[in-house]
Structure prediction request, 153 residues.
Amino acid sequence: MRNRAIAIVTATLLTLFVASGALASEIYKWTDAEGNVHYGDVPVSAQSERLAITSKPTNSAQVQATTQARLDAGAKQREEAAKLPAGPTPEELRAEAEQRAEQCTSSRTQLQKFLTSRRIYRMDDNGERVYMDEAEMQATRERAENRVEEYCN
Prediction:
């Protein structure tokens, strides 16, 4: 409703502005000493050239129809934008960044442990330590490096 009222007021002011321009029936063009072209409704010098400009009355119904069509198109765009899924909120982005930072810190700590330890173990189903051989240790270190790369970059 408010947009429609603004459109009507705008169309009315535009019509009045164009109509007042029709009253200024003579337009002059002149070039100053520096070569700049100027336009005005009063001749400045003998070199001022009167321009033959014609104007027609504004069709207010057409102006209102065009304005309404633009308003309708804007409303349709807003409706379509409202149907699109919203992106993550700033709070969600912040929480995700904090989680990634925690995962980065944890991954770096674990990688450092794997790089400095001579023997690496994992716990089996019975809760007992199973020491890894060289190939398993290398694979574990590579996985830790990949996690650091994923979360810290």
About this structure: The chain has a mean pLDDT of 85.
